[in-house]
Amino acid sequence: MNALFLRVAATVFLIPLAAGILHADDWPQWMGRERDAVWSEDGIIDKFPKDGPKVLWRAKIRGGYSGPAVADGLVYVMDFDTDADTKKLSNPGKRPEIKGKERVLCLDAKDGQEVWKHEYECEYAISYPAGPRCTPTVHHGKVYTLGAEGNLYCLDAKKGTVLWSKNFAKDYGAKTAVWGYASHPLVDGKRLICVVGGEGSLVVAFDKDTGKELWKTGTASEQGYSPPTIISAGGRRQLIIWDADKVASLDPEKGTVYWEQPLKPSYGMSIMAPRLSGDVLFAGGMGGVSKAWKLTEDGDKLAVEELWAGNAKLGIGPSNATPFIEDETIYGFDAPGIMRAVDLKTGKRLWSSTAPLNVERQQNHGTGFLVKQGGRFFLFTEAGDLVICKLNRNQYEEIDRANLLPPTGDAFGRDVVWSHPAFANQCVYVRNDEGIVCFSLAK
């Protein structure tokens, strides 16, 4: 009886431990597993320790805006190895020509040790030439990377060997946009969908395993920076593409157009990924340009109804980060660095605050990255702070704040870090232009 009791007791006690292990999750691409900025792990701290979260490891890397991806015990990040002083060359009105090597680095998630490195010569002629913009996308043993000048690679995730590659300029006659390629590639079924550019090849779907072109479509004045996004609305799956001129809905299987709506941000800066909540789609960008549409089914067609268009007093025009939508409320950072809560269906501003970025006044392109975890949010600010906060339609409530790393980039004369963190293994992985750091956030 005693032996039987011990076996049963051991089983009972091990069940919650196993459940905890099952809740561990990877962060295999930009904004997480579902590209929705939701961190699904539990067992996470409620407040930071007195001296801040524990550093598990640090590794040196070079410049870039590319966020880390974490999958299967490995961390993937891109950088740009150059002798040029990219910080001094960061000017929104200039595109300096500099030489260097773009690199894809694979590190051990436990200790930060290098597992493999893939690098290639690359000449930049972009504004803010610190390094690559796109977070690697890891899927089924492969990692897909897109450099700032349109170099696309499919690599073996464990070894780093090249499986196939594309050069958007050579293969499609595409011209790099002012601020470089920033549209994170999207895996959808057998397809790898990329915003490319060029005549008739604004969007291209490749076979994710072979690199074979499956379809291409579209032309725009400039490709913009917004990543391809899949939604389900009006009774069908839609691929949403926001270029410098318009928001378009495509059939992800064939690339045929379902609908198009004009939306022209200042300087072609379509950056955020359009977000769907219920049957309402929202997109917004520079110049206070923003719109919300209701998407419904109308017989064999999709009906698109504009609900509102933003202006100086209505809506929100995010600069560098995709807002989070919850309970019919948009939470995000307007271009001046002000955090706003906006009613999704009317565009009415519910509240505005400069407290999240810890500044007393507005600042150009003020940036913060929001990630939902449980009933609260983790906010990573351009100053390198990680903030635990709660958001609702009435207020911003800050719970705790810790500085994780120094901002090393330049934006209009101030130091910033504009790279989306990764949350996995009960940790946060953050990078600047000098290194990548893993901090424990486990209780």
Question: What is shown here, in short?
Answer:
The protein is mostly beta strands and 443 residues long.
Explain this structure to me?
The protein has 443 residues and is mainly beta. It has a domain at 36-62 and 354-443. Helix content is 6%, strand content 44%. The chain contains two helices and 34 strands. It has helices spanning 2-22, 168-172; strands at 55-60, 69-71, 74-81, 97-108, 114-125, 137-139, 142-146, 151-156, 162-167, 186-188, 191-195, 203-207, 213-217, 229-233, 236-242, 246-250, 257-262, 275-277, 280-285, 289-298, 301-309, 324-326, 329-333, 339-343, 349-353, 368-373, 376-381, 385-391, 396-403, 409-411, 414-416, 422-424, 427-431, 435-440. The strands form nine sheets. It has a four-stranded antiparallel beta sheet with strand order 1-34-33-32, with no helix packed on it. β15 (236-242) and β16 form a beta hairpin. The longest helix is centred in the first third of the chain and has 21 residues, at 2-22. The model is unreliable at 1-22 (pLDDT under 50).
